[in-house]
Amino acid sequence: MSAPHHSSAGAEPASACTDALPSAARGGPLSHTLSRVARLHRIAAGKFLKAAGIYPGQEFVMMYLWDTGPVRQSELIKAVDLDPSTVTKMLQRLEQTGHVRRSPDPADRRAVLVEATGASCSLLAEVKAAWCDLEEHTLAGLDAHERAELARLLGKVEANLCGETAGCPGMPGAPATASTGAAGAETPADPADPAAGQDRTSSARSTSAAEL
Predict the structure, then answer these.
(1) In this predicted structure, what is the pLDDT of residue 176?
(2) Do residues 197 and 177 touch, judged by C-beta distance below 8 A?
(3) What is the pLDDT of residues 23-51, one digit of tens each?
(4) How far apart (Å, rounded) are the C-alpha atoms in residues 201 and 192?
(5) Residues 76 and 61 sit within 8 Å (Cβ to Cβ)
(6) Phi–psi pair at 131, nearest 5 degrees
(7) Under a CB-based contact definition with an 8 Å cutoff, are residues 138 and 47 in contact?
(8) Which residues is 116 bridged to in the sheet?
(9) Torsion of CA 9, 10, 15, 16, to 10 degrees
(10) Do 197 and 94 contact (CB within 8 A), yes or no?
(11) What is the per-residue DSSP string for the chain?
(12) Do β-strands 71-72 and 100-105 pair in parallel, antiparallel, or remain unpaired?
């Protein structure tokens, strides 16, 4: 006697029950989401910053210069926590557009001083506006309580990651200038320049700007 036939009607196919995450990421669903959110956030930032005529990553350099005034290029590199060659290329572009000025350090002619120019004041206003627009675009639909809670939770996540990162801002052993750096949010490399792609960073702290 043959076994009774059980209808599969109503049963979901196996594929429908498969987790949408890549198989290798199923043990870290939140980490996978964070990586995607970081990438999308940086893409959105690029669109807002494009109107100001700069690429993602350059704004962190300018933020630091606007807040600190003239600094040695070596100090700037430590503060924004980017690859030296990346910062050099960024500064070359920003110098060409009239936003920064580089000159020999009177105290040490081998060192280079970098400062924001007076002409960059208009860029400052545009970056402020872009950052505000990015904030609203990113947090649309979240009320004040949800935004505060998200900031609190992300702060804890950041602290966890900083605990595993050498030289993280605010952590023992961090460069003295890093705690005041504008690149406190992870920073740069993204498709920073579609034409040359030269503003990419290799820094662990540049996750917000990284193409993950």
Answers:
(1) 42
(2) no
(3) 888 888 889 999 999 999 999 999 999 98
(4) 9
(5) yes
(6) -65, -40
(7) no
(8) 100
(9) 160
(10) no
(11) -PPPPPP-TTPPPGGGGS-SS-GGGTT-HHHHHHHHHHHHHHHHHHHHHHTTT--TTHHHHHHHHHHH-SEEHHHHHHHHT--HHHHHHHHHHHHHTTSEEEEEETTEEEEEEEEE-GGGHHHHHHHHHHHHHHHHHHHTT--HHHHHHHHHHHHHHHHHHHTTSTT-TTSTT--TTGGG-GGGS----SS--TTT-TT----GGGGGGS--
(12) unpaired
Residue 82: the pLDDT is: 86
Q: Which residues contact 29 (CB under 8 A, 6 or more apart)?
A: 21
pLDDT for the residue 13? 47
- Give the tokens for residue 114: 């970098």
pTM, to two decimals: 0.66
Our CA angle for 110, 68, 184, nearest 5°, is 105
Nearest to 82, CA basis, from 191, 194, 204, 211: 204
The two structure tokens encoding residue 57: 């990553």
CA distance 54 to 129: 13
Quick: pLDDT tens for 88-135.
999 999 999 999 999 999 988 889 999 999 999 999 999 999 999 999
| C-alpha span between 135 and 43 (Å, rounded) | 13
